[in-house]
Amino acid sequence: MRSAADWGRVYATGVAMGIADLVPGVSGGTVAFIAGIYDELLGTIAGLNFSLVGVLRREGAIAAWRQANLGFLVVLLAGVFTSVAAFAGLLHRLLEEEPVRLWAFFFGLVAASVPLVGRETKRWTAQRLVLALIGLAAAGLITSLPPLVQSEAPAFLFISGAIAICAMILPGISGSFLLLILGAYAAVIGALKGFDVVRIGVFGAGAVVGLLGFSRLLKRWLERHRAATIAVLTGFLLGSLNALWPWKEAVRELYTHSDGRVEYFRVNAGPPADWVHGAVWMVVGAAVVIGLEWAARRLKSA
Length: 302
Prior knowledge:
Strand order of the largest sheet: 1-2
Order of helices and strands: HHHHHHHHHHHHHHEEH
Largest sheet: 2 strands, antiparallel
Distance between the termini: 16 Å
Structural class: mainly alpha
Number of strands: 2
Shape: globular
Radius of gyration: 19 Å
Number of domains: 1
Helix content: over 70%
Strand content: 5-15%
């Protein structure tokens, strides 16, 4: 039975997950992993099926609510939706006005998360190291791809939602970055900023379909091959740092937004003369993760 403080931590975790998923390169699944709710989140989502209808008919709404662990999911999603509504515009502005500081902060955050995820694999064998290297290579390749297309068509947004949500629950794989590669990121962020109910609804429907299907598969992998799966996810997380490197240079023009802003394909570059500002924000990001992990351990031992 959770206390009021426990529910507050679930909500706060949802807020942090929402912020992470808004930024290309950062995964909400990483936040859930650090906060210690990843297995519960995955199990709750995977447990949403038609058998709950039978429980509802036989035992009533309260029994179905408890069996599905919907209290946990509702509070967590309330935190996610709060951060999306509150911070979508702010993060959009920071990406435009303070990209180096923002990317540096998340680079430090994700870098500090790598050993936290990796330690879930108690013993690193040669096979698991190879799996981690495969995850590293895959994430490095994915984060090096340029956006493919630009579209706001409903069918495209539905498919993009189904694909991106799979990444959003994986530690180290950013759903927002996949949206960027697919070419749907600008359309989704624009819909969130403008409260476009139709586009948000279509994207959300695709996300629900993708989430219900993929969560069951991932849960099965973790149950049967946990150490190997964590090894791959650790590699994914390390490889995602490629997308978060704060210093980049524009290579070519990709497209122009409806408001006249030009989007460029950017590649990583060496640190400039004033690299100290970025380094400071990397340390801040790492300190946030270390602080959260320390607080989580204190709470468990209390």
